[in-house]
Design goal:
Length: 445
């Protein structure tokens, strides 16, 4: 993989970051002018070229700003039904291929975070990064014959989250058609999660807790963390061998190996969600390492979504066919999770209920089969259904924000996992476990 150009500095002031995004907006305007000029001359629309130019300009800007601005791009790259392909492909680079900090900037950031330079703590330390993403970048080090991964947070990330999200809102509104009403509700949830991701001491604690709770799950392994060498801006853990998904698949592993890995991922998420009520909610390929021993390493616990019990008992019954057939129960549950409101007229209620049940029936298909084959066709069907639902007037231009904020990271997690399983072309055991019976009993079915 070609190493991106390094950054000698990161813009941290609000004014400087705002100016960077304003400049990006000007580039997007120029791209549109070129598009309309070409269209007037040739009479043809070439929106793919427009999208490609816009995606490149937006990504270049956000990847240099780092932090929450780039994290939003990363999240959008996983939401393929929201963006044209040019955006999702370009933004996916933010998962682990963003431009890294230069060596001197790495040293300065490490010293500011720990009070020491890397060579004062480790036997060896490589200044060239192994991977660079939205919040920080990872370096290889050794200590007492241990091979370590050292994650260093980009300077100024935690201080710029609120202002960054305010700056990104107009871009999201202009490029992706998101209304202010929609954004306000969900951006609060995004801001809370992003603030948590900058607290490496919290990530260390969560990583240790989840590793202990999930130690029994076959095929999943976790790094050991080292609090004595870590801080709130530097996180030190064991270096895990393996490849990110794209590189792993390029080695053409057997389908048997891919199925075992997929089963491990499925079991890992099922246990977290239905037993622990807290999930690793950042399931993009950059956070997993795959190997030909049919094992997957989980290396990032910065984004953990704790699922409130009331939301769990309101949302997850809707994945069960027997619940979907009980319209009175569906009406109550959809009202509780704010998909429909008592003041909605009958037409709006009917449209939204029908759309939600159609989508949940699709998303819950794996749970209702003993074995399920995840394919790209299945993913395409999900996105096509999403596009169809988006055409409903009350969905496209809602009169009020709809849906619980808690669903944002839950849905994102499912889409991410389903997409990875489809990339693996996996056939695995997916039938709902005891949680289905527990939820049916809770609903009185």
């Amino acid at each position: 993989m070609k190493q991106p150009e390094v950054q000698e500095s990161i813009v941290s002031s609000k004014l400087g970051r705002a100016a960077k995004l304003v400049g990006t907006g000007a580039k997007i305007g120029t791209n549109y002018l070129k598009y309309y000029a070409k269209k007037s001359i040739t009479g043809k629309e070439d929106k793919e070229e427009l999208h490609t130019s816009n995606a490149a300009d937006i990504y270049d800007s956000l990847s240099n700003l780092k932090g929450s601005a780039l994290k939003v791009a990363q999240m959008l790259s996983m939401d393929k039904n929201l963006l044209p392909r040019a955006y999702t492909q370009k933004f996916a680079m933010s998962q682990y291929s963003a431009p890294p900090m230069s060596g001197p900037l790495v040293m300065k950031a490490f010293k500011n975070a720990t009070g020491k330079y890397p060579n004062e703590l480790f036997d060896t330390f490589e200044t060239k990064s192994l991977a660079a993403a939205s919040i920080g970048q990872v370096h290889l080090a050794t200590k007492e014959r241990k091979k370590l991964a050292v994650k260093i947070q980009y300077p100024g990330v935690s201080d710029s989250i609120q202002s960054d999200l305010k700056l990104v809102k107009p871009v999201a509104n202009a490029m992706f058609g998101l209304s202010e009403k929609e954004m306000k509700k969900y951006f609060e949830e995004v801001e809370e999660k992003l603030m948590e991701e900058t607290r490496y001491e919290l990530e260390l604690k969560r990583g240790q807790e989840i590793a202990e709770a999930c130690a029994h799950i076959e095929g999943v392994h976790f790094p050991q963390y080292y609090p004595e060498w870590s801080s709130n801006k530097v996180l030190v853990m064991d270096y895990l061998e393996g490849d990110h998904l794209k590189e792993f698949l390029e080695k053409q592993p057997s389908q048997e190996v891919k199925n075992k890995i997929a089963q491990a991922l499925w079991d890992f998420y099922e246990f977290q969600l239905h037993e622990k009520k807290a999930i690793h909610a950042d399931p993009h390929p950059g956070n997993f390492l795959f190997n030909d021993l049919a094992s997957v390493g989980v290396i990032d616990f910065g984004c953990i979504k704790e699922v409130p019990m009331d939301f769990y008992y309101q949302y997850f019954p809707l994945l069960i066919p027997e619940v979907q057939e009980n319209l009175d129960l569906v009406d109550r549950l959809l009202t509780e999770i704010e998909i429909i409101f008592p003041q909605d007229d009958d037409k709006v209620k009917e449209e939204l209920t029908s759309a939600f049940i159609k989508m949940t029936a699709l998303l819950s298909r794996p749970f209702n089969h003993k074995d399920f084959h995840f394919t790209q066709e299945f993913i395409d069907e999900i996105y096509a259904t999403g596009e169809e639902i988006y055409k409903i007037p009350e969905v496209k231009k809602p009169t009020q924000p709809r849906g619980s904020k808690h669903a944002l990271y839950i849905n994102r997690t499912y889409f991410g996992i389903y997409s990875m399983l489809a990339d693996l072309n996996a056939t695995i055991k997916t039938e709902a476990g005891d949680w289905k019976n527990r939820l049916m009993e809770k609903c009185g079915i």
